[in-house]
Design brief:
CATH architecture: Alpha-Beta Barrel
Shape: globular
Oligomer: single chain
Order of helices and strands: HHHHEHEHEHEHEHEHEHEH
CATH class: Alpha Beta
Number of strands: 8
Strand order of the largest sheet: 7-6-5-4-3-2-1-8
Number of helices: 12
Structural class: alpha/beta
């Protein structure tokens, strides 16, 4: 089923944010490490020298193919969502690659780590930036007022810290609850058995707008092996949405990456997170 793609656009409003200072970025990690990381993203020549293995035309063609694949998956599956947002996962990618994707019409990006997100967001605040990796509570203060969505809420402690930071920033933060469907000890997320109680507890955090669920599956050779995992997340979302809890708005399923996004769309994904299929594998 690798013959699929889409013109479907994300339905998120583009959220911009105040610039992140270099001092703030440096405070996240050891001074030398942060400065070197920041410089590798901003130095004029560095990004050209490390620009993956793909040129801008390759990135544009890859984005077109992926969108077409999403559209075809939507057309053949009764479980597919009407609108599917494509997030370009730009972790470890230089700004040249991000600029090439943006020039091709890709405006929504995702990062795994706060340290890498902040300088990119500072350089291109007009793009929409999601955080999809695990967020430690002590780093919530750096992103609560900046990101468009957090995909990895997985603890009451983190929810409490985000609530506090959002109150200071006077904003409501869209979040997804990460569910460890495969119950893989190497993956973050709450267990499927905890979902109902966890979602009920979110009523205590009114500045977190719970918009759905996210999962990260195991690495598999055959994307069809992911179908039961994606289907289970869809079923959990349907079950919880039927409870009609007023503090929840379970519109989204964030699932599917480069190797299995077609299957994810067929099983109801509203957000897919694609990196290497857009940018290529970094050398």
């Amino acid at each position: 089923m690798n013959c699929y793609s889409s013109t479907a656009r994300g339905t998120f409003a583009t959220l911009t944010a105040p610039n992140t200072s270099r001092e703030t970025f440096d405070s996240l990690t050891a001074p030398n490490t942060a400065r070197e990381t920041f410089d590798s993203l901003t130095a004029p020549n560095t990004s050209r020298e490390t620009f993956a293995t793909l040129t801008a035309p390759n990135i544009k063609a890859n984005l077109l193919e992926i969108r077409q694949n999403i559209a075809k998956a939507q057309a053949v599956s009764k479980n597919a969502a009407k609108h599917v947002a494509l997030l370009a996962v730009s972790k470890t990618q230089p700004m040249d690659a991000i600029e090439a994707a943006a020039a091709a019409g890709q405006l929504q990006f995702a990062e795994n780590r706060v340290q890498e997100l902040l300088p990119k967001l500072e350089m291109r605040p007009e793009l929409t930036w999601h955080l999809i990796g695990r967020l430690q509570s002590n780093k919530a203060k750096f992103v609560a007022d900046k990101i468009a969505m957090l995909h990895s809420l997985d603890s009451i402690g983190l929810a409490a810290e985000l609530q506090k930071r959002c109150a200071k920033a006077n904003r409501v933060l869209p979040v997804l609850v990460q569910v460890n469907i495969a119950e893989d000890t190497n993956k973050a997320g709450i267990s499927p058995m905890e979902v109902a109680d966890f979602l009920a507890a979110m009523a205590d955090f009114p500045l977190l707008h719970v918009q759905g669920l996210m999962t990260i599956g195991p690495i598999v050779d055959n994307p069809e092996e992911m179908r039961p995992i994606f289907a289970e997340l869809r079923h959990i979302r349907q079950r919880e949405a039927a409870r009609k809890q007023p503090h929840l708005d379970l519109r989204h399923l964030s699932m599917g990456m480069s190797g299995d996004y077609v299957v994810a769309v067929e099983e109801g994904a509203t957000i897919v997170r694609v990196g290497s299929s857009i940018f290529g594998v970094r050398g």
